[in-house]
Amino acid sequence: MTAREQWDSDADDAGALWWRWAVIYQIYPRSFADSDSDGVGDLRGIIGKLDYLADTLGVDAIWCGPLYRSPQVDFGYDISDHTDIDPVFGTLEDFDALIAAAHQRGLKVIVDFVPNHTSAEHPWFAESRSSRTAAKRDWYVWADSAPGGGPPSNWTSEQGGSTWEFDETTGQWYLHSFNRAQPDVNWRCPQLRKAMLGVLRFWLDRGVDGFRIDALHMIAKDPGLTDNPVRENAEPNPTDRQHPDFDSQWHVHDRMHPDLHDHIREIRALLAEHSARTGQERIAIGEIEAMPWESWVSFLGDGGTHFNFNFNFVETPWEPAALRAGVEEQEAALPAGAWPNYVLSNHDRPRLATRNGSRSVRIAAMLLLTLRGTPTLYYGDELGLADLPIPEEKWLDPLGRDQARATMPWTSRGNGGFDSGPADAAPWLPVSDEYLRLSVQSQLTEPDSVLNLYRRLLALRRSEPALRHGAFRALDLRAEQCMGYLRSTRRQELAVLLNFGDADTTVGLPGRGRVLLSADVPSAVAEHALRQRFLVRGHSGLLVELDDVVPRQRDA
Ligand code: GLC
Ligand code: MG
Predict the structure, then answer these.
(1) DSSP-derived secondary structure letter, 318
(2) How many Cβ atoms sit within 10 Å of the Cβ of residue 199?
(3) How many structural domains compose the chain?
(4) Which ligand is nearest the CA of 30, by number?
(5) Secretion signal: which residues (predicted)?
């Protein structure tokens, strides 16, 4: 898209391009709200919070983590029935009610699609493992021992150790890129592909607006099972709980096989067919590893995903130069017409406030909601929550990811309003005093709370076209601890000024402007004067509307 087209795209705000302008809110269903007080969040719980999401907070779409029937070894990413809701979350009727209630409020609903593997308890796998000649043998990846014995290749799983598990029944190994309870399916098998597309169709027919596609870069592997090259002297990444063994080899043969793009094209064609039929764009969001931008963008495009999660901010040092480089690299790498995305936290990584300290959360809110691209907000980040510290012996997830999945504190007492009445069971994760202190209820009454900063930013993102689709240009502020950029449409130019340092700093803009929003505490400094130089407080930021860089035609 040319800059000019970008400027002119205001008209499409609510139409086919909704996914560009929408702010997506990630719900971890176990932890959001528990309607039946059994200790685990559920669909009726989410329905009860839609007013909070649509009106109090002001997001446009929700992405709910996996709700399907599952033994919950990987908390739902191990699916044993793709077309049913796990009883812990409710029923298919509850799901239909969620879609209806969300759509009534103008909220889109995105669900997970997990194409790389199923649960070992899936009936498909039961049949596949039953004999070498079983009808569904080929639906999973089976192989003989290596010539000298042992696993068929040196591939390591995301969680460490071999990807291969020996199965006594048939004397072959099956592949599991994650936990051994999650056997990888075989996308080279046409019947499997057909079944997986049928799963997508099932949820499209129930009205979902899109899919977040799990581990999309892994769905095709080298059919020759070539060993991966070993990676010398790799340093483990401390922010990366999810991949303890990721760095021990170059995953060139078990991930990113080029054939996966054929499979994505099939998925996209199905979505396109459905979108055309219903007049509503249904989207595919790729969850793919952080990888060189050129590989990352290869997933995008007409036959590819609508956008991919961009984990750059999760993995980059929290410093202005590194963050700016990440933004500019993504902008430069995107092919024409493609669209950026930003993720600050998710259910796999330590929370933002834990990674970068609690002082980072205001600047992070401004970055997420003022950059060009679809913002993805992880539940609880709008409260500035840090991880809930859980000692290792109490981890329910083998990788300790439950620390970033604690229950949402709605109120400041008891279980934080997570359950709806006298609790039958304690919440599945403990509730801390710190979480109660940061509850939704308490932050709504504090004008300068992080939650109120998010609410102000979200309201501005709705009211200011330049924030939704304006072009991005970095500013050279001549202050190392600061980051600044412009967002411009033909009618409006906004500047974002962020100070990552402790010291207050004055920076200059290319033209004069007025402060639209300040992230300072207290925020009461109503600074409406027209000026060219601005004092940006440490660990805070300003959003400035420029008055004289481009001619103002807005009120004309
Ligand atoms: C994705 C999910 C993660 C899960 C894994 C296996 O990375 O985000 O939670 O464990 O895939 O499905
Ligand atoms: Mg419940």
Answers:
(1) S
(2) 17
(3) 3
(4) 2
(5) none
State the sign of the Cα–Cα–Cα–Cα dihedral 344, 349, 351, 354.
Answer: negative
Low-confidence ranges of the chain (pLDDT < 50): 1-11, 551-556
Contact yes or no for 266/190 (Cβ under 8 A): no
| CA 426–ligand 2 middle distance (angstroms) | 11
pLDDT of residue 364: 98
pLDDT of res. 425: 80
91 occurs within a structural domain: yes
Give the pLDDT score at 460. Answer: 97
Catalytic residue status for 273: yes
Long-range contacts at 325-333 (CB < 8 A, ≥ 24 apart): 327/371, 327/472, 327/474, 327/485, 328/474, 329/293, 330/293, 330/373, 331/372, 331/472, 332/293, 333/293, 333/294, 333/296, 333/297
Residues 6+ apart with CB under 8 A from 315: 237, 239, 240, 290
Mutate to test the pocket of ligand 1, among 26, 68, 75, 77 (most ligand atoms within 8 A of CB): 77
Q: Do the domain assignments include residue 26?
A: yes
- Whether 66 and 202 map to the same domain: the answer is yes
Cα–Cα distances in Å, from 107 out to 90, 290, 512? 20, 29, 37
Q: Quick check: is 441 in a domain?
A: yes
Cα(517)–Cα(519) distance, integer angstroms = 7
Task: Indicate whether 320 and 434 sit together in one domain.
Answer: yes
Instruction: Give residue for tokens 């909704």.
Output: 18
Q: Coil, strand or helix: which one is 374?
A: strand
Output the six-digit token pair for 299: 């997933």
| Distance (Å, whole) CA 347 – CA 400 | 11
Query: Which ligand has its closest atom nearest to the C-alpha of 43?
Result: 2
Instruction: Tell how strand 531-536 and strand 540-546 pair up.
Output: unpaired
Q: Closest Cα to residue 313, out of 360, 253, 244, 261?
A: 360
Q: Is the CB of 216 under 6 A from ligand 1?
A: no
Report the separation in Å between the CA atom of 354 and the middle of ligand 2, taken as the mean of its atom positions: 28
Q: Is 214 a catalytic residue?
A: yes
Domain assignment present for residue 141? The answer is yes
Same structural domain, 109 and 131: no
Domain of 476 in residue numbering reads as 472-555
The closest residue, in CA terms, to atom 8 on ligand 1 is 348
